[in-house]
Design a protein that fits this description.
The chain is of the alpha/beta class. The protein has one domain: NAD(P)-binding Rossmann-like Domain (Rossmann fold). It is built from ten helices and 14 strands. The two termini are about 35 Å apart.
């Protein structure tokens, strides 16, 4: 494979795991990432890269040239004030025929509440939160750009992400996990390594203007997840609290939605077998490896 000239708008846990996966395959990478911090040269996973300043109001002008010479672009920046800031600043730059792959990371919050029913990529999108509304608008902006400029753009709708570092076990250990007393409440989740593997698969197997749910096989209530985590750690489960007593607006918004996310399209198109098909395998791995 030719050298991958990659621009990552945002360099959080998903982007880092994606780059780590590419690196593990011994592929040649030229990496540029964006950050709100001042531009600097850095290193990750024994890979030298350049981090260029980018915010909704300003950016390092060198980004323009790097976009022009890139062949892979990953966008993991959330909308700001209801607008996708990458499209806002660079839509006229996405013209070159070198680009082979643009992936926009969205979220399953775009579906809104489906009262615990299953949703797939053709289901109604009726987001209940501002973040979900903004994500859906951003998706439409990227698909419009794909149409107008014939660009290779795919959208991945990510379920709740957990990782070896951020998971229910760490929250139980710190005492921050709470059981919310709300019936018929279902959430889907996905381990960050599975997201990275899907991203890597999509480099070779790509279809523009497609949307994929990225989720594991077992939607469940947060209570079921917490009970399993408590059992693994051999600690007492947290006491249940009523949602009305929760002050955090983010938590309240989270519990507005109940749905089970179908991942059939993802598994079939990318011919992918999940490394962590449910939270059981994911949490067992974290515990057994003393992570």
């Amino acid at each position: 494979m030719e050298t991958m000239n990659i621009v990552c708008f945002g360099f959080g846990q998903v982007a880092k795991n994606f780059i780590k996966k590419i690196n593990s395959e011994n592929l040649k990478i030229n990496l540029i990432v964006t950050s709100r911090e001042k531009s600097d040269k850095k290193s990750f996973d024994n890979l030298e890269y350049e981090s260029l300043q980018f915010s909704e109001n300003s950016f390092d002008k060198r980004l323009i040239e790097h976009i022009k010479y890139s062949n892979h672009i990953l966008v993991s920046i959330a909308p700001v004030d209801g607008e996708d800031v990458v499209i806002k600043n660079f839509k006229n730059i996405f013209d070159n025929n070198k680009i082979k792959w643009i992936t926009y990371l969205s979220a399953t919050s775009v579906y809104g509440n489906h009262n615990g029913d299953w949703v797939n990529e053709n289901s109604t999108t009726n987001p209940t939160s501002t973040k979900g509304i903004d994500r859906l608008n951003a998706e439409k902006s990227w698909l419009d750009l794909a149409e107008k400029k014939n660009l290779p753009i795919q959208i991945l709708r990510l379920s709740g992400i957990y990782s070896n570092q951020n998971n229910i076990l760490t929250r139980l250990k710190t005492g921050s996990a709470k059981i919310i007393d709300k019936k018929n409440q279902f959430f889907s989740r996905i381990h960050v390594e599975d997201i990275a593997n899907i991203l890597f698969k999509s480099v070779q197997n790509f279809k523009s203007k497609e949307i994929y749910n990225i989720s594991d096989d077992k939607p469940t209530s947060s209570e079921e997840l917490i009970l399993y985590g408590s059992k693994l750690l051999n600690i007492e489960k947290p006491k249940a609290v009523n949602l009305s007593t929760i002050e955090s607006e983010m938590v309240k918004n989270f519990y507005k939605d109940s749905k089970k996310v179908n991942n059939k399209k993802m598994k079939e198109f990318f011919n992918y077998k999940l490394k962590y098909p449910t939270y059981v395998e994911g949490l067992d791995h974290i515990l057994n490896n003393n992570i």
